Amino acid sequence: EGFLHAVSSVTIILLLTATGILRGQGLDADPAEGAKLLEEAAYLGSAGAAADLARLCRMGLGRPASDRDALYWYRIAGAKGHTASQREAGLMLRDGRGARADNDEAARWLRAAAQGRDPQAQYELARLHQCRGWAGADPEEAARWLTEAALSGVVEAQYLSLIHISEPTRQEAI
């Protein structure tokens, strides 16, 4: 237990120092050094550090821009339950950024984030389930996640839900 507490304390110190260096708060801004400290914290198990590192990889801040590296770190953070990273990994896989497009794996990551109450992931998962070219598409799952996203305040989902609700009415009128 003492060892785990020490690792946790080191991780927090690394995160705080990295944030200060990246933002130039009390220290000279040095993105490369900040990224290096985030990587150390991520290797010590910090999901937040892995997520921050993924964003730096996408932006090319402190290291060369790389979707492949960003996806790697989003997966690391996502595996630790970081819902925003789960969503980003799913979107990258759906779009073929950082790896070959894979809707099955994208759906797994988006579902994890959606189940973690991430409204945007709920919406994106619904849209993926509406994709006619994907063998895993499921209209019932699409409707379920679209409703969840709409109830969570995603405007696009609210709009699509209204269209979906009004379609039977229009069909009956014909």
Number of helices: 9
What's the rounded overall pLDDT mean? 89
Q: Biggest sheet, in brief?
A: none
> Between the first and last Cα atoms, what is the distance in angstroms?
69 Å
Number of DSSP E strands: 0
Shape estimate: elongated
Stretches where pLDDT is under 50 for at least 5 consecutive residues are 2-7, 169-174
List the secondary-structure elements in sequence, H or E: HHHHHHHHH
Instruction: State Rg.
Output: 20 Å
Strand proportion, as a percent range, falls in under 5%
- Pairing-aware structural class of the strands and helices? mainly alpha
| Helix percent band | over 70%
What labels describe this entry?
174 residues, mainly alpha, 9 helices, 75% helix, 0% strand
Characterize the structure shown.
By secondary structure, the chain is an all-alpha fold. The chain has helices at 2-23, 31-43, 47-59, 67-79, 83-95, 103-115, 119-129, 139-151, 155-173. Helix 4 crosses helix 5 and helix 8 packs across helix 9 (155-173). It starts with a helix and ends with a helix.
List the helices and strands and how they pair.
Blueprint: H1 2-23, H2 31-43, H3 47-59, H4 67-79, H5 83-95, H6 103-115, H7 119-129, H8 139-151, H9 155-173
Helix pairs in contact: 1-2, 2-3, 3-4, 4-5, 5-6, 5-7, 6-7, 7-8, 8-9
Q: What's this entry about, in short?
A:
This protein is mostly helical. It is built from 9 helices and no strands.
